[in-house]
Amino acid sequence: MIEQFALAIANIDWPKDKLEVILLLEEDDPQTINKAYGLKLPDYFRIEIVPNSLPKTKPKACNWGLQIASGEYVVVYDAEDKPDPLQLKKAYLAFKRSDKRVICLQSKLNYYNQNQNLLTRIFTAEYSYWFDIALPGLQTLNTIIPLGGTSNHFVTDILKKLGGWDPFNVTEDCDLGTRLFKQGYRTSIIDSETLEEANSNLKSWIRQRSRWIKGYMQTYLVHMRNPWEFFKKHKVHALLFQLIIGMRMVFMIINPILWLTTILYFTAYPIFGPFIESLYPWYVFYPAVFCLIFANFTYFYSYMIASAKKGKWELIGYIFAIPFYWVLTSVSAVIALYQLITKPYYWEKTKHGLHLETQTRKSKWLVFPKISIEPVFEWPKFNLFSKYFGRFVGGVANLMRNLLKDRSVMEIFANASENLNIRKTSSQYGLLGSVGKFLKSNLQRVVIGGGLLVSANIFANFTNYLYNAVLGRSLSYEDFGWTSLISNLNLFLGVVTASLGLTVTYKSAILLGRRGGIKKDFWRVTRKNIFNIFFPIGIAVLLLSHYFTGGTSEANEVSAVLVAVVLMLPVSAVASVDGGFLSGNLKFAPLAFLVVLLPVVKFLSGYIGIVIGNINIIFFSQAIATVITFFVGWVIIVKLPKQKTTRGVKESIKFPKKFYLTSVMNRFSLAFFLSADVILAKFFLSAGDAGKYAILSLIGKSIFFFGSLVTQFITPVVSKEIGEGKEGLRSFYKLFFLTLLATSFAFVVLGVFPQKFAVLMFGNKVYEISSFVFKYALAISAFTIAYTISLFHQTKKQYLFSYLGFLLSAFEVLYILLYHGNIHEIVESIYQVSISYLLASSVLHIVTVKNTALKVNLLSLAKLFLKTKISKPVKGKANILIYNWRDTKHKWQGGAEVYVQEIAQRFVKKGYGVTVFCGNDGALKYDETVGGVKIVRRGGFFTLYFWAAVYYLLKFRSNFDFIIDCENGIPFYTPLYSTLPKILLIHHVHQQVFRENLPFPLKNIAVFLESDVMKSVYRDVKIVTVSQSSRNDILELGLNTNGEIDIISPGVNMRSYSRLKKFDYPTFCYLGRLMPYKNVDVLIRSFKNVVSEINNAKLIIAGKGQSEESLKILSEKLGLSKNVEFRGYVTDLEKKEILSRSWVMVQPSSFEGWGITVIEANASHTPVIASNTAGLRDSRLSENAYAWSRNFSWNSAVYRFINIIDNEIEDQQKSAVPAYSYSET
């Protein structure tokens, strides 16, 4: 590590004649001492030997060095550190510009080996949070900052006056940060980073973490010797010290106990539930659930924000594994507490250099050193666990990471935190890296805005649940039935008001997309018109309401309910316009505040009503909350600053009436599905059963509200994209996936395990309705998903979905009117209608939206019953069936598809019949003729293999004479269902591709299918491949033990390539599919270095594939948008021009069967830089590929195929009774 440290210090941009580096070495470490003297360090290095004495700690060594330091400033580095080269200059300028009280500057710390394993990834996320969010946040409060163990810059004289470091404290940095604060000095964070080595060994990590925690405990005990004086002098800062230093350590120890209690309560309630409940009063469980949800969510979210700010998007998915990390932290805390008693000053040494051991085990590539792919997920020292569980979690992590990185989804969060009033770091320090600046950066606005609104909705739903739960526990069934009736009548009121809000959201988002900025003209006109309509209606209904009072108790309650609802009508309508305007303009922060304000006021009003025993206050709690929220929202929009529109598009501000009418239909559907059953149950069932059904309804509403946390973004996001001229389909699919995930989670928690979770939320009354919960929860889940589909198509002006939902909801009411004898009959009605709604919506969506896998497979099934056009050979020739994964028109077509098409077309010219059976990407015809070849496209990415067998057995079996089975990773296993003679065509073996690119268990399945299964199924089948390297791989895999493998290579027509003038600027090109194993990302990262030297260099990437979007994001992230050009699919002429005019072609693929593009580039007089892989080596000039290609023709390749086909057919005829008459050619 000393060489690395010396190099890092040498790279620091600071005059070396003004630099003194004191290398502190322990006297009893002769190996390191000899190594240091043997390096011949520069003159500014000074080796000091620290005497061997107790305590053997780092702070003791630092004090030794401090006494001999001669500089005005002193900084501490660890041996493994790699500081920012400009760090000393930044620190010097910061000291000069800062307040004199600032005597310490803490640089931000992070790690350079973050991707070594899971432990280092979470460790890096933790450090990103601590040094980029937590410490800058503490700085804004001008409070105690526990220092990091390295990269602390001090004013030397003041540090000596403070006595340096406490030699007995094993976390000396935390103690020193506290002491300097108590002496009136301050610490600030500078925008400079030092990279360290993250501890990658689990045992070593626990030792290191236990030392840190023990030091925090020591610091707390030392500085709390006189707590009264501490609190009296430092006031709120003393309280922060308790939270940051003291209670943090306490919770690390008791956290496992709390977790164990919670797990036992939920999983073993009959045994432990009553005992745990006896320890706490019932109301304690509500804040407990709140903390369980929000505290953990906040922690997860903070880690994600920190990782996003650092640009470490790849870490976000792994943060979901952090509960395991917390358990290890608690283990370390227990060890720390034990050592605090038994050996308080013992310094647990940390082993460094572990990442170097890992690097030596990695394979190296000759051309691209970074081309090897690291494992997606690895647990430290738990290889077996990593192999099975780690890959699964890694796959989920990658999926979540891609969702977070996907810009179409993240667009919904883009302007969310714009109106947050974040306090900036005090400008008197003149330092970068403050929390205020961090939260106001564009990147963080993307990440936190949508989460802010989602969090607000979670809080609002939780508060609503708490409101209903408290009422449910405090009121009788009859009174709770009336309050539930008011809530459900409010939902019917939402048919009008929420429809208004959604319509305003839609129109505002359309205007935002088309104008590129916010104007209030539509909001102002709409708000005025709505108030003029609904205010007179509300007054009229109030004047007529006394007719409903007949003097009886029942009549008085009905009148109170009516007045409570009518009061909200005009106010709710206008407030909905305000909320819709904020949502449509993506102003999620103020909208989140309003979302929280409404239920909080309602809960407080209801609680006051319970305390004083006034049922009318409970009835009017919703109205009170609505009025207050209305005025607050009005003020927010009035204060909203105007924006300049960036697009000069004239757009009508006319109210979209048809959208509003369909919104009313959707809201009626929502009200009918979620509330009509409760209202009807109130009138048809007994008071007791109606109350039970009300609780059942609350469970269903909880599921719907949980799913709607994401659904709320569909209208503003998709409408804005439509306004910008986009389709919006991709954003919908991402949001739909998240909705499905949220709804499924809620269904499992509340519907599958009601006696464990629903009981906690709604009390013991759930036991009486537990037999109905599963089916009712499933019904509401189905409705939630179907409703999400309807919202999307409404923004596309496809209103059939709204009509469908409205008709089915009306049918549900009719169904309940006919069958309402008991709770079971009502639940059954809801269930049947909801499932029907989901099925009908799904089918309509498939029919309406193109390019869906489900649509492809349904049509493949339907076409099974129709006539399929297949090829017909001339008399005396064979009819050939070719199975291939794709064809040349598929969006992911490549060289293998060109090879098959070239051969097939020449078969046809010679009189053979050829039908190619392949997959459909959803945008292609299902039956087509290309160059005389019949193309039958059925199935999708994976289902193609299923349809291949089905179509052969039911339609093709008696129509063909020969099969060419093309293996593209996995063959079609035609010997299992066909006895026809056949050829297995293999372009290259995919074992390495599977192992490096597929997650567990897919990679294991694929490897097994291509090796063991394929070896058995194709043991007697003739094999053809395209190169000698592929032949060697096939033999090594044991697919053909007799070694009879024919090589029929593809080639190029040399006469069609010419030499063109090269581009005026250095131009590199890549031609091929954009797949993970092609390693185009490695090319782009390497090209970054080229651009740093030659700023006008250009990289042309021609091709498409599943990695295209991520590669575009990568090029933007690296600042290469102007240098990297994505051409997509190119014509043959465009391809030849690119190859000929480029200066260099690059082929970085990790695996290829045959480098056809290499030959094409060489034919165009363009040199090639290629990976040192077998297939690409075959196509090099030194392997005579160029000379061979000059004599290549597709006709000669076809003749070789014909000879093989004839021989195979003849062999089968000799060994069996011929099934057909065939004459040789």
Automatic annotation (TrEMBL):
<feature type="transmembrane region" description="Helical">
    <location>
        <begin position="935"/>
        <end position="954"/>
    </location>
</feature>
<keyword id="KW-0472">Membrane</keyword>
<feature type="transmembrane region" description="Helical">
    <location>
        <begin position="315"/>
        <end position="341"/>
    </location>
</feature>
<feature type="transmembrane region" description="Helical">
    <location>
        <begin position="487"/>
        <end position="509"/>
    </location>
</feature>
<feature type="transmembrane region" description="Helical">
    <location>
        <begin position="249"/>
        <end position="272"/>
    </location>
</feature>
<feature type="domain" description="Glycosyltransferase subfamily 4-like N-terminal">
    <location>
        <begin position="894"/>
        <end position="1054"/>
    </location>
</feature>
<feature type="transmembrane region" description="Helical">
    <location>
        <begin position="560"/>
        <end position="581"/>
    </location>
</feature>
<dbReference type="InterPro" id="IPR029044">
    <property type="entry name" value="Nucleotide-diphossugar_trans"/>
</dbReference>
<feature type="domain" description="Glycosyl transferase family 1">
    <location>
        <begin position="1064"/>
        <end position="1210"/>
    </location>
</feature>
<feature type="transmembrane region" description="Helical">
    <location>
        <begin position="618"/>
        <end position="638"/>
    </location>
</feature>
<feature type="transmembrane region" description="Helical">
    <location>
        <begin position="659"/>
        <end position="681"/>
    </location>
</feature>
<feature type="domain" description="Glycosyltransferase 2-like">
    <location>
        <begin position="73"/>
        <end position="265"/>
    </location>
</feature>
<keyword id="KW-0808">Transferase</keyword>
<comment type="similarity">
    <text>Belongs to the glycosyltransferase 2 family.</text>
</comment>
<feature type="transmembrane region" description="Helical">
    <location>
        <begin position="799"/>
        <end position="818"/>
    </location>
</feature>
<feature type="transmembrane region" description="Helical">
    <location>
        <begin position="446"/>
        <end position="467"/>
    </location>
</feature>
<keyword id="KW-0812">Transmembrane</keyword>
<dbReference type="InterPro" id="IPR001173">
    <property type="entry name" value="Glyco_trans_2-like"/>
</dbReference>
<feature type="transmembrane region" description="Helical">
    <location>
        <begin position="530"/>
        <end position="548"/>
    </location>
</feature>
<feature type="transmembrane region" description="Helical">
    <location>
        <begin position="588"/>
        <end position="612"/>
    </location>
</feature>
<feature type="transmembrane region" description="Helical">
    <location>
        <begin position="693"/>
        <end position="714"/>
    </location>
</feature>
<feature type="transmembrane region" description="Helical">
    <location>
        <begin position="284"/>
        <end position="303"/>
    </location>
</feature>
<keyword id="KW-0328">Glycosyltransferase</keyword>
<dbReference type="Pfam" id="PF13439">
    <property type="entry name" value="Glyco_transf_4"/>
</dbReference>
<protein>
    <submittedName>
        <fullName>Glycosyl transferase family 2</fullName>
    </submittedName>
</protein>
<feature type="transmembrane region" description="Helical">
    <location>
        <begin position="830"/>
        <end position="849"/>
    </location>
</feature>
<feature type="transmembrane region" description="Helical">
    <location>
        <begin position="735"/>
        <end position="753"/>
    </location>
</feature>
<dbReference type="InterPro" id="IPR028098">
    <property type="entry name" value="Glyco_trans_4-like_N"/>
</dbReference>
<dbReference type="Pfam" id="PF00534">
    <property type="entry name" value="Glycos_transf_1"/>
</dbReference>
<keyword id="KW-1133">Transmembrane helix</keyword>
<feature type="transmembrane region" description="Helical">
    <location>
        <begin position="773"/>
        <end position="792"/>
    </location>
</feature>
<dbReference type="Pfam" id="PF13632">
    <property type="entry name" value="Glyco_trans_2_3"/>
</dbReference>
<dbReference type="GO" id="GO:0016757">
    <property type="term" value="F:glycosyltransferase activity"/>
</dbReference>
<dbReference type="InterPro" id="IPR001296">
    <property type="entry name" value="Glyco_trans_1"/>
</dbReference>
